[in-house]
Design a protein that fits this description.
Layout: H1 2-20, E1 36-37, E2 41-44, E3 50-54, E4 60-64, E5 78-82, E6 88-106, E7 110-120, E8 123-134, E9 146-160, E10 167-171, H2 183-197, H3 207-212
Antiparallel strand pairs: 1-4, 2-3, 3-6, 4-5, 5-10, 6-9, 6-10, 7-8, 7-9
């Protein structure tokens, strides 16, 4: 009995800490560099909440900072890339109250403003933004990020200005692993996405520079 009284408070604290943990999306769960998705992407948050990520054209690709992405994310960081103008939407299967460590960057050199809008159904709950500049000599690992903690929401919408070449969406810092994303699911992503890798052209923030030439 004495041990029970000692352990119960610690167990209660552990449950409380887990319940209060902010939802984070590990973009590494979507596969290796150049994995292509012809439609919405499904995944999980670190808390096991199912999510669906949708681009304006339904076309998303995995890019890795330092490989097929030259930008402000940390070296080696994976992100999802949408090549066309418009917002990228993340839908949550169950209402959530917090979201952390999500960053977005325009796929073109020059100043841009990133914006996050949080919705509960059609109701706009909150809007956040930050401004940056995609310089050719910009330092990786310096990108800002969004975090939200408030009323329950089921949708997070990300957009940027200067977006004629689309945007990249990822983590400002590395999150913990998402549950259920083990070896088997990783091999499945490789099998599905790998079929299309050979026909996809590389895209990164050098796009604007190439068009200008």
């Amino acid at each position: 009995m004495r041990k029970g009284f000692i352990l119960l408070p610690f167990a209660a604290l552990a449950v409380s800490a887990a319940a209060a943990r902010a939802d984070v999306i590990d973009f590494g769960q979507f596969g290796p560099d150049a994995t292509y998705y012809p439609g919405p992407v499904s995944g999980l948050t670190n808390n096991g909440v199912p999510i669906t990520i949708t681009a304006p054209t339904g076309d998303l690709e995995v890019r890795v900072q330092g490989a097929d992405w030259t930008g402000q994310f940390a070296p080696g960081a994976p992100l999802l890339f949408d090549a066309f103008p418009g917002a990228v939407d993340i839908g949550f299967a169950t209402p959530e109250t917090s979201l952390a460590n999500i960053a977005v960057q325009a796929n073109a050199f020059g100043p841009y403003t990133a914006t996050l809008k949080i919705y509960d159904g059609a109701t706009l709950l909150a809007t956040q933004s930050y401004s940056s500049d995609n310089l050719p000599a910009g330092a990786p690992g310096t990108i800002a990020s969004f975090s939200y903690n408030g009323a329950a929401f089921d949708q997070a919408v990300f957009s940027v200005t200067n977006d004629f070449g689309g945007l990249g969406l990822g983590n400002a810092t590395a999150p913990g692993p998402a549950p259920g994303q083990g070896l088997a699911s990783g091999l499945l992503v490789l099998g599905v996405g790998g079929l299309r890798v050979a026909v996809r052209r590389k895209r990164n923030p050098l796009l604007a520079l190439a068009r200008a030439d």
